[in-house]
Design goal:
Number of domains: 2
Low-confidence stretches: none
Strand content: 5-15%
Mean pLDDT: 75
Oligomer: single chain
Structural class: mainly alpha
Number of helices: 4
Strand order of the largest sheet: 5-7-6
Helix content: 40-55%
């Protein structure tokens, strides 16, 4: 299982960190988490996680953020120019109504930018979460479409049955292997005797 730093993606020049816990997720990881064993022959029929949707959502978020920053910068520039005109060209040196109006306007623009950025980031998280949940649903639905004998919940097994981990054999754990690949204590425990 990858560590937290393995999920860091797209960190450049002090920008944000894209966290995608599904970036390196395999079918085996999710099946393990769900407690489902699928026969090796049927695994190829199951969908794999495609990170393209999450990558597109991140890029759309970046573009919306750039547009919001550009709009906020333009608003601040307009505000500075208006304040300079109101102050008779004195700009920031003047005190009084012009400076006070500038400070209030600047505060509104900065607050609005912060709120918009937070909303956009929340939308990104919601989009990626929806993509991930969609993959989980698609995977579980595909498992449901498999023949009943090609998958099982780990809780369905009794103590005399063992499902080997990938790369492991029945003999590694002291079991015997049935024709269907299931590991049992005695070959008489195999389906069909």
């Amino acid at each position: 299982m990858p560590g937290l730093l393995d999920y860091v993606k797209g960190y450049t020049h002090g920008g944000g960190v894209d966290f995608d816990p599904y970036a390196d997720t395999t079918q085996a990881d999710l099946l393990e988490r769900f407690g489902i064993d699928v026969d090796a022959d049927s695994t190829g029929l199951l969908p794999t996680y495609d990170s393209t949707g999450a990558d597109l959502a991140r890029e759309a978020h970046r573009l919306r953020g750039d547009a919001t920053r550009g709009k906020a910068t333009g608003s601040l520039l307009d505000l500075t120019q208006q304040t300079a005109l109101i102050g008779g060209g004195a700009g920031f040196k003047e005190t009084g109504a012009g400076t006070q109006a500038y400070n209030v306007g600047r505060e509104d623009v900065v607050t609005g930018f912060g709120q918009a950025a937070q909303e956009q980031y929340l939308d990104l998280q919601r989009d990626i979460h929806g993509i991930q949940r969609g993959y989980e649903s698609e995977l579980l639905s595909a498992i449901g479409d498999l023949p009943e004998e090609s998958w099982r919940f780990r809780g369905d097994l009794d103590d005399s049955t063992y499902i080997p981990e990938p790369g492991e054999t029945c003999a590694d754990k002291g079991f015997q292997e049935c024709d269907n690949g299931e590991c049992v204590e005695s070959l008489s425990d195999c389906e069909g005797g």
